[in-house]
Amino acid sequence: MRNGQDVHPGAAACDWSYLPENTQFRIVGIDTIFTCEDTGNAVIGWTIDIWVLYGSQGKELLRKVGTSITIEIVVLTPV
User: Where does the source fall among the domains of life (predicted)?
Assistant: First the structure.
């Protein structure tokens, strides 16, 4: 990841001009807290890329929340 760590559960890639590095958020309907620790060429604006361990977990998450989500900011890191 951009911060030098290996990917791990709870890691997310975010556009840091929208959700700054280390911002923590939760997807409404999911208990997991995710942290913006990475960026990416396809992560633009409000697009968020969430890392999951297995493809089946990603498919289950997609089935549960869909492609358009509401997030709740837990900790907003100042820019």
Answer: Bacteria
